[in-house]
Specification:
By secondary structure, the chain is of the alpha/beta class. Helix content is 39%, strand content 16%. The strands form 3 sheets. The chain has a 6-stranded parallel β-sheet with strand order 7-6-8-9-10-13, with helices on both faces. A 5-stranded parallel β-sheet has the order 2-1-3-4-5. Strands 11-12 form a two-stranded antiparallel ribbon. Helix 11 packs parallel to helix 12. The radius of gyration is 21 Å and the shape is elongated. The chain starts with a strand and ends with a helix.
């Protein structure tokens, strides 16, 4: 008898990956729009394997209802949507992209999105387009700056950080880097001297609220902060105060803070600040390219098929 596998997010899922899984498993899809936990539990409680991205928070309360569960597949590097501690305690295997260093070298989506955020905010692309949509043709209101010869600080030298380093070299920027083994004084120097800082560092207990007033107070010039790490790497209240205080401080991010699937008060304040054009936010799009998703889904489908065999 084939093990039952449910795909909680089949939309845009690789057809090749589906074909691989259907050969090995009793493959079903949850295509409902509801995220009601009772409905979700009724769909997954008798499954051996769950496929999920970020739509659902698979916590202990939900997972404990899945008595047959053997594995969880998540084509992501971040696992904060999974109760990893509970899964490990129950010996439920996690198939993800975390630490798949060799494979992930070919995935460029997050790095490209980070660079797109930087170019968009320094070149004033969103606000200039808003103006054109109002049938205005006013280039002088949107004079902008070059990246050429600017100083960039890259916080986190993992896969994305190294890609950003390469992009920076192509734009002939002056580069400073900070990684987990570097001293805090180096981080302070980056904020004191760089025109642009990009955050690609992993969120953990050491990096939570790493970026705060102590660093923001060193910035007294035109400055751009780009975050494609998690929102919690930055102290959100300190960030909001800095943006309000300095018209020369610009912030672009692919993340906001959420609590129980709802935007926090600080996140709502940041969205309101985007009207000033100092803030640019995208809804966790960095890894959301079809090519990247499909390559990753096919990779993990092959992995679990091989493991089960």
């Amino acid at each position: 008898m084939k093990k039952k596998i449910i795909n909680l997010e089949p939309k845009y899922y690789s057809e090749i990956a589906k074909k691989i899984l259907k050969k090995k498993f009793d493959y079903v899809e949850y295509s409902g729009s509801s995220i009601n936990k009772k409905i979700l539990i009724s769909k997954i409680k008798d499954c051996d394997i769950i496929i999920s991205r970020f739509r659902f928070k698979l916590d202990k309360k939900l997972l404990s209802k899945c008595k047959k569960l053997k594995s969880v597949i998540s084509a992501t590097t971040g696992l904060d949507h999974l109760d990893v501690l509970y899964l490990n305690q129950k010996n439920i295997k996690i198939y993800s992209l975390k630490n798949q260093i060799k494979f992930l070298k070919k995935i460029k989506s997050s790095s490209e999105h980070t660079w797109a955020l930087l170019l968009s905010i320094i070149k004033k692309i969103p606000q200039s387009f808003d103006s054109v949509k109002k049938l205005k043709w006013d280039r002088y209101s949107f004079l902008n700056n070059n990246l050429y010869k600017k100083k960039i600080g890259i916080i986190g030298l993992g896969r994305n950080g190294k890609n950003i380093q390469r992009y920076s070299k192509a734009f002939e920027m002056k580069i400073m880097t900070f990684d987990r083994h570097d001293k805090y004084e180096k981080l302070k120097k980056i904020f004191k001297t760089c025109d642009v800082v990009v955050l690609t560092i992993e969120l953990n207990e050491m990096t939570k609220n790493l970026i705060n007033n102590q660093l923001f107070n060193l910035v007294n010039r035109n400055f751009i902060l780009v975050n494609t790490s998690r929102a919690e790497v930055i102290n959100q209240n300190d960030l909001i105060k800095k943006i309000k205080k300095s018209k020369l401080f610009y912030f672009a991010s692919d993340f906001l803070e959420f609590k129980k699937k709802l935007l926090t008060t600080s996140s709502k304040k940041l969205i309101k600040l985007s009207k000033s054009h100092q803030v640019l936010i995208t809804p966790h799009l960095a890894g959301a390219s079809l090519e990247s998703w499909n390559i990753c889904e096919e990779y993990l489908a092959k992995q679990i098929s091989k493991y089960e065999k």
